[in-house]
Design goal:
- The chain is an alpha/beta fold and 425 residues long.
- The protein folds into four domains: 166 residues, Molybdenum Cofactor Biosythetic Enzyme, Chain A (3-Layer(aba) Sandwich), CATH 3.40.980; 48 residues, Molybdopterin biosynthesis moea protein, domain 2 (Alpha-Beta Complex), CATH 3.90.105; 95 residues, Molybdopterin biosynthesis moeA protein, domain 3 (Beta Complex); 77 residues, Beta Barrel (Beta-clip).
- It contains seven helices and 28 strands.
- The protein has a seven-stranded mixed beta sheet with strand order 1-18-20-21-17-13-16, with helices on both faces. A five-stranded mixed beta sheet has the order 8-5-7-6-9, with no helix packed on it. A five-stranded mixed barrel has the order 22-25-24-26-28.
- A hairpin with a 5-residue loop joins strand 20 and strand 21.
- Helix 1 crosses helix 6 and helix 3 packs parallel to helix 6.
- The model has no long low-confidence stretch (mean pLDDT 92).
Length: 425
């Protein structure tokens, strides 16, 4: 990684992400009840202590038989067997199946000793009744092979098998499998605690009245929602004013809350009142970059000194730039903290509805992608009530369901050119 560049040179996006992730390590694990494990990241492998299913059982409602007793069976020449038992699910068979006998059996019920197959009701006189046939007898209308409609022990999961590996995000089906093997407690990474701090004298909280020159603190709330979206626990610190004393106090408050990552917004550009750089430099080892990204060129990153090092990402102040920078830089950091092993953004490839131009930075353009009638994805970057890509137009993020990624090497793309679209929703 080349970091020997002029002070004002733009840092490539991939290099900035790599340098951030290099300072981030997964948080420690905790054990939670299975009922609270959904969406969490597994911290240790799960090995099954049992076979699933634990015993041979019927996969159908039907009759458990010896398969060879059905040889040659047909509608015109059925095979006749004596029914010796009825086996519901949850009960243990009491009879052994011998040649010429059968057990009526329900789905999931244990296979009786001696039985080698199950013939479905639909292939017997239970489905096509025969007049005057005794209730103790059944006619078979089709042949079956040994093993037909039988679930063998360990067919799904074998005892000692590793069923889930560390780093796996638990989905509903995973929770079901854990229940099947009796995993009542699950080792997962705890949720990373992320401090969120908005800075600026111009900010007021959402319940405060607006006065001349003031704007509401939207960044903190949007960032908190994004932290939750990606599995973190937001620690909202409110607004830090543009003074060294207030900003220092807020940072110490966040560190005292034992956070794993610190996010600030605003105060990292070249303005006269951007105090964040000064304070952060005094609280830790900080770097301030001009990143080759649009929107959101100014970015701070470093480590705050505390009982343990706490990484800090200083996001831009403009709300759209802050959200885009979160997706590019903070999202992978939070995912790595939470135990994920992959943080590539989900995306689709779509054809442009209009031409686009680029200024030489990696451009993440707000966009709306959709499935066209011909079955291909298309995407527009202009067809909204806003119709602009300004970094202060927060409603454009409401309209957008994706971000078109234009590489820094591209200055122009024509209509119908295929582009990568990061999925936001």
């Amino acid at each position: 990684m080349n970091i020997n560049r002029p002070p004002n040179a733009l840092v490539p996006v991939e290099e900035a992400v790599d340098r951030i992730l290099d300072k981030v390590a997964p948080v420690e694990a905790e054990t939670v009840p299975l009922t609270r494990s959904f969406g969490r990241i597994l911290a240790a492998p799960v090995t099954s202590p049992i076979n699933v299913p634990p015993f041979a059982n019927s996969a159908m409602d039907g009759y458990a038989i010896i398969a060879s007793d059905s040889s040659g069976a047909a509608r015109q020449s059925p095979c006749r067997l004596t029914v010796v038992e009825n086996v519901p699910a949850g009960e243990t068979p009491s009879c052994t199946i011998t040649p010429g006998t059968a057990a009526r059996i329900m789905t999931g019920a244990p296979m009786p000793p001696g039985a080698t197959a199950v013939i479905r009701f639909e292939e017997t006189s239970e489905f096509l009744p025969v007049e005057d046939l005794p209730s103790t007898e059944v006619l078979l209308y089709n042949p079956v092979n040994a093993g037909d409609n039988v679930r063998l022990p360990g067919e799904d999961i074998k005892q000692g098998q590793t069923i889930l590996k560390p780093g796996h995000r638990l989905r509903p089906q995973d929770v079901g499998v854990l229940a099947a093997v009796g995993q009542a407690q699950v080792p997962v990474y705890r949720r990373p605690r992320v401090a969120i701090l908005a800075t600026g004298d111009e900010l007021v909280d959402i319940e405060q009245p607006l006065t001349p020159g003031k704007i509401r603190n939207s960044n903190e709330y949007g960032q908190a929602a994004l932290v939750e979206k990606y599995g973190g626990e937001p620690v909202m610190l409110g607004i830090a004013r543009d003074t060294v004393a207030d900003l220092t106090a807020k940072i110490k408050q966040g560190l005292a809350a034992n956070v794993d990552l610190f996010l600030t917004s605003a105060g990292v550009s070249v303005g006269d009142f951007d105090m964040v750089k000064t304070v952060l430099a005094g609280q830790g080892e900080m770097q301030f970059w001009q990143v080759a990204i649009k929107p959101g060129k100014p970015l701070a990153f470093g480590v705050l000194h505390h009982r343990r090092p706490v990484p800090l990402i200083g996001l831009p102040g403009n709300p759209v730039a802050a959200m885009v920078a979160f997706e590019v830089f903070a999202r992978p950091a939070i995912l790595k903290l939470a135990g994920h092993t992959r943080w590539t953004k989900s995306s689709v490839w779509a054809k442009l509805d209009e031409e686009v131009t680029n200024s030489g930075r990696r451009h993440y353009m707000r966009a709306y992608y959709y499935l066209a009638e011909n079955g291909e994805y298309r995407v527009t970057t202009r067809d909204s009530g806003v119709k602009v890509q300004g970094s202060g137009i927060l409603t454009s993020m409401v309209w957008a369901n994706g971000l078109v990624v234009i590489p820094e090497s591209i200055t122009y793309l024509p209509v119908d050119h295929q582009v990568e679209v990061w999925i936001l929703d």
